[in-house]
């Protein structure tokens, strides 16, 4: 018996096991709808117990119950406005107390307003920066001491920040200057936290999705169709599940040597 590569027998590498999250606890912000919901579902399917956090507590609880029913995992639905420090602290505390720890944080909550720069109000500017940048900063800062503790399998925590290809390219018809700037900040914040927290065993990576049909990205609207579908190399937008697979990769030991990475999952959109 040989391995066909000139070596002797080798033990199986267990590569698929590296994607499993059994015994770990994950928290997804903005998790009851859109991409966040798909991320929470995928993490639970990979074996994690999952907390779904959102501003609408009732819908978080409902989503958490549905995920528990379909996966058999323990779940928790809770209220958390990611711009409110007291709510973030209380939410993280609940996750740790009720699910027994915290090993994965997915900073998914985000907002986008399509408006030409000359019409952007101060309130709009504040809202987008607060949600998309401070809304990544606050949960990360509050969760980091918990993520730095060894989980049940000895592994420390992983943060996945949801950035965007909008941090890297500008699609002129979209008119979302503040959003684009906020996502660039998310990518750079990811790298800064990754460098600072690597010594405590906490990995921090970002995912830059291409277009996915959600309330934020009405890809079928005629004014956006050409930009989002016809001009895309694969001539389609992503399914939430395709993007969620990248989140599971970054959350799990499959990416154990990745930190400070921005993983682009965009069907080749940023190639042109
Ligand atoms: P949605 O608009 O469908 O969902 C956004 C989610 O964020 C909602 O659950 C919303 O909750 C929540 N949210 C907004 N503000 C806050 C807040 N202050 N506190 C807590 N939750 C909040 O958008 P997507 O699912 O499309 O987007 C998810 C993430 O993916 C975002 O970060 C977005 O920028 C990013 N992204 C999306 C792409 C796409 O094509 N869809 C492409 C690239 C990146 P509520 O119901 O309370 O408003």
Automatic annotation (TrEMBL):
This is SDR family oxidoreductase. GO terms for biological process: carbohydrate metabolic process. Pfam families: adh_short_C2. The keyword Oxidoreductase applies. Belongs to the short-chain dehydrogenases/reductases (SDR) family. It comes from the Bacteria. Keywords: Oxidoreductase. It comes from Pseudokineococcus marinus. GO terms for molecular function: oxidoreductase activity, acting on the CH-OH group of donors, NAD or NADP as acceptor. InterPro entries: NAD(P)-bd_dom_sf, Sc_DH/Rdtase_CS, SDR_fam.
């Amino acid at each position: 018996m040989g391995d066909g590569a000139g070596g002797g027998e080798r033990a199986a590498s267990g590569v698929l096991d590296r994607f499993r999250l059994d015994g770990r606890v994950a928290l997804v912000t903005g998790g009851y709808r859109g991409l966040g919901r798909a991320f929470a579902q995928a993490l639970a399917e990979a074996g994690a117990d999952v907390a779904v956090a959102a501003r609408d507590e009732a819908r978080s609880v409902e989503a958490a119950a549905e995920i528990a029913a379909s996966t058999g995992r323990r779940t928790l639905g809770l209220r958390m406005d990611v711009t409110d420090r007291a709510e973030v602290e209380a939410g993280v505390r609940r996750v740790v107390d009720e699910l027994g720890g915290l090993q994965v944080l997915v900073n998914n909550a985000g907002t986008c307003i399509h408006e030409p720069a000359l019409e952007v109000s101060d309130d709009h500017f504040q809202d987008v920066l607060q949600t998309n940048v401070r809304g990544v900063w606050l949960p990360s800062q509050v969760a980091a001491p918990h993520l730095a503790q060894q989980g049940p399998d000895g592994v420390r925590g992983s943060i996945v920040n949801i950035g965007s290809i909008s941090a890297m390219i500008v699609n002129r018809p979209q008119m979302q200057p503040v959003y684009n700037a906020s996502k660039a900040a998310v990518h750079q914040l990811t790298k800064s936290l990754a460098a600072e927290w690597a010594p405590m065993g906490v990995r921090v990576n970002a995912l830059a999705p291409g277009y996915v049909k959600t309330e934020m990205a009405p890809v079928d609207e005629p004014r956006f169709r050409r930009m989002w579908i016809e001009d895309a190399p694969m001539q389609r937008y992503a399914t939430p599940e395709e993007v969620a697979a990248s989140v599971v990769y970054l959350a799990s030991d499959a990416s154990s040597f990745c930190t400070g990475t921005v993983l682009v999952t965009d069907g080749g959109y940023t190639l042109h």
